[in-house]
Design brief:
heterodimer; A: mainly alpha; two-stranded antiparallel sheet; 16 helices; disordered N terminus; B: alpha+beta; Alpha-Beta Plaits; three-stranded antiparallel β-sheet; 14% strand; elongated
């Protein structure tokens, strides 16, 4: 126990401790009450124009939580049509903006939450408290960060290519946001039903690299350029195992549409094991490959070489400050959410409940629970594994993950032709395990684990 | 030769178990946490920690009990010259061995402790208080005599060993002075006595030696 007795300090200039940090529960209750009151007030005011229409929609949504977002949207559109007699094109636009606004606000909130949760979790892993000053349990920290970021000076280096420097963060953020449009969030809740959703996702994922290189080249800084070059090499290498793992799923479900892939994972084996792809040998291996490659694609530890602060300051983000830096930060997180959402769609059964008796919880909640579990896993990995060395990174992609990706495809094919069941299970397990063990041996021989010897400092 | 089974990824799983143990454990074992929630909890500062100087006073009166005699030794020795002293004078213009003004400018104080070392009266000591953050330089960071005067009890609170040694020192000094005074007095008395005896001897007329010479 640390000695924590009060020290006879002078009491000069002691700032008043903030209310929120001292009374977390009451602050939270006040906040929720304020939101409810404001919401009820707005609802009441809007309701005056056409009595019963909006409240009716809200009541209907409460009665059927599984379809609540759809009912609310339809109710709002109906209200606009009758009460404000909006033209059809306006309704069309409103319908689009409702979806965009909902997605942006939901992912914005998750982004804010994650920026705090990540710091908290890393702190706890390192036996620290983490941010706990702003608000209850530090919950207002994202707000403080946002204010800090927005009030900072936006510096553009003299030698920078101003257009590229400005466009780079936007080029990073837009594809990440666009990917969110094709994810199936729940039954009937796909913002854009795209038959070639998977292809769209990979096309947009490749666009991110352009943004990174724009940032690196446009900054006119050696660290930025080196970081960007590393990033390109890494992202191109890891896109292959990412794609190979997704390809196995596409082969088995016979469709490039995310919605169809989710419906292919409907149902339960023995009525308690969900029919998700992750519970098959090839699916499990594919999920691990996909998730590892996803960490590399979103530049997260242990694959965060492009922004390795110990050697490259901040990589391609070195010359960015203020709002542009915040946009980069946001793009990275939204990209992580998008790719985790894709992992959920491909391998973890999308919005399906893990157990039959848990199906009363709405599908969209299941989707976000799974998505956030993956995000937490990514943070956990970040808190565990140190950054890889450049050659190890490339070697891992080309010598281990890509061969494993082909093995996964083969195993999926065998599974398909064996028609699942015990023989399919055994055959695909063998096909996945053999190269795993063999490659593991090769890797272990090539990069033997040994104690590092310091030639000069240790004698 | 039998080769060990190599499972790639096993090391990461082991590492993740360790981090999970630390993460969950930090919520249950207070011992794991290396940091404290600072303004609510405070660590006892080490005895030798020092920040800025303060003035020690004896007893309960921060004005009358000040050990400082306004000798201006520290003012002269202070390398960044952040100490300003104005000695008190009585109506005749005679120094009363007491400062009217004693300011220390924390903006430039470099905590070198030279003032403490040169002080012949053990009256200026290093404080360990550090919460001086302020929005401006001049009102808050120039400490006046009233801010600087802290009791000997406070001194014992932050630096018990040093304060006890200082007290012993001062006591010894007082005794030495008392002894010296007593000796001086005794010497004076003896001198007076001798002088008195001498005078008495001179006053009595010589009687016997005249007889002997004859």
């Amino acid at each position: 126990m640390l000695p924590t007795e009060t020290h006879p300090q002078t009491q000069r200039n002691r700032p008043a401790l903030n209310f929120a940090a001292r009374r977390p529960w009451s602050t939270l209750a006040l906040l929720i009450a304020a939101v409810l009151v404001v919401g009820a007030g707005v609802l009441f005011l809007l309701n005056l124009k056409a009595p019963g229409l909006l409240t009716g929609a809200v009541v209907a949504a409460m009665g059927d939580p599984g379809q609540a977002p759809l009912i609310l949207k339809a109710g709002l559109l109906h209200y606009l049509e009758t009460a404000w007699s909006c033209a059809p094109w306006m309704l069309e636009l409103t319908s689009i903006f409702i979806v965009i606004g909902t997605l942006l606000s939901v992912f914005g909130v998750i982004f804010a939450l994650t920026s705090l949760v990540e710091r908290k979790m890393l702190a706890r892993i390192q036996n620290r408290f983490g941010p706990n000053r702003a608000g209850p349990w530090g919950l207002f920290q994202p707000l403080a960060d946002a204010i800090k970021m927005l009030t900072k000076e936006d510096i553009v280096p003299t030698g920078a290519d101003k257009v590229l420097h400005l466009l780079a963060p936007i080029t990073m953020l837009v594809p990440a946001l666009l990917v969110l449009a094709i994810l199936p969030y729940g039954p009937g809740m796909v913002p854009v039903e795209l038959g070639v959703g998977i292809l769209f996702f990979f096309a947009l994922g490749a666009t991110t690299e352009v943004g990174v290189f724009m940032a690196g080249w446009g900054s006119n800084n050696k660290y930025s350029l080196l970081g960007a070059m590393r990033s390109i090499a890494q992202m191109i290498s890891y896109e292959i195992p990412l794609f190979l793992a997704a390809l196995a799923v596409v082969m088995l479900s016979g469709s490039l549409s995310p919605d169809a892939i989710v419906s292919a994972q409907d149902g339960y084996v023995f009525s308690f094991v969900p029919h998700w792809f992750v519970f098959t040998p090839w699916g499990f291996a594919g999920f691990l490959l996909f998730f590892t490659a996803a960490l590399a694609e979103s530049n997260r530890s242990p694959f965060d070489l492009p922004e390795g602060e110990s050697e490259l300051v901040a990589g391609h983000m070195t010359e960015y400050s203020g709002f542009k830096y915040a946009v980069f930060f946001m793009a990275e997180y939204i990209g992580l959410f998008a790719i985790c959402g894709f992992a959920v769609t491909l391998f973890l059964g999308g919005w399906h409940a893990p157990l039959p008796w848990l199906e009363w919880i709405p599908g969209y909640l299941w989707f976000f629970i799974k998505l956030y579990a993956l995000v937490l896993l990514a943070i956990w990995v970040r808190g565990t594994v140190p950054r890889m060395r450049g050659d190890h990174l490339m070697g891992f992609a080309w010598k281990f993950m890509i061969p494993m990706g082909f093995a996964v495809i083969l195993a999926a094919a065998v599974w398909h032709y064996a028609g699942g069941g015990v023989p399919g299970w055994l055959a695909s397990a063998v096909i996945v395990l053999m190269p795993y063990l063999a490659l593991g041996r090769v890797v272990a021989i090539q990069y033997p684990a040994s104690r590092r010897v310091y030639r000069f400092s240790e004698s | 030769m039998k080769q060990p089974l190599i499972l790639p990824g096993l090391g990461i799983l082991k590492g993740m178990a360790v981090t999970a143990r630390n993460m969950i454990g930090s919520y249950y074992g207070r011992k794991r946490l290396h940091t404290i929630s600072y303004p609510e909890e405070r660590l006892a500062l080490p005895e030798n920690s020092r920040n800025f100087p303060f003035l020690v006073y004896d007893g309960d009166d921060p004005e009358g009990g000040l050990r400082c005699t306004a000798c201006r030794m520290c003012e002269k020795e202070c390398p960044p010259q952040v100490i300003y002293i104005k000695p008190e004078r009585d109506e005749n213009g005679k120094l009363t061995k007491h400062p009217t003004v004693f300011d220390i400018d924390l903006n430039a104080c470099m905590s070198c402790q030279i003032c403490v070392e040169v002080c012949p009266f053990e009256s200026i000591k290093m404080d360990s208080a550090f919460e001086y953050a302020a929005y401006e330089h001049f009102e808050s960071l120039v400490l006046h005599k009233s801010d600087l005067a802290k009791s000997n009890t406070y001194y014992h609170g932050i630096k018990p060993t040093e304060a006890t040694a200082v007290d012993a020192n001062l006591e010894a000094e007082r005794q030495r002075k008392a002894e010296a005074a007593a000796k001086k007095e005794a010497a004076l008395k003896a001198k007076q006595a001798a002088a008195a005896a001498n005078a008495a001897a001179k006053e009595t007329p010589p009687t016997s030696d005249t007889d002997a010479s004859d």
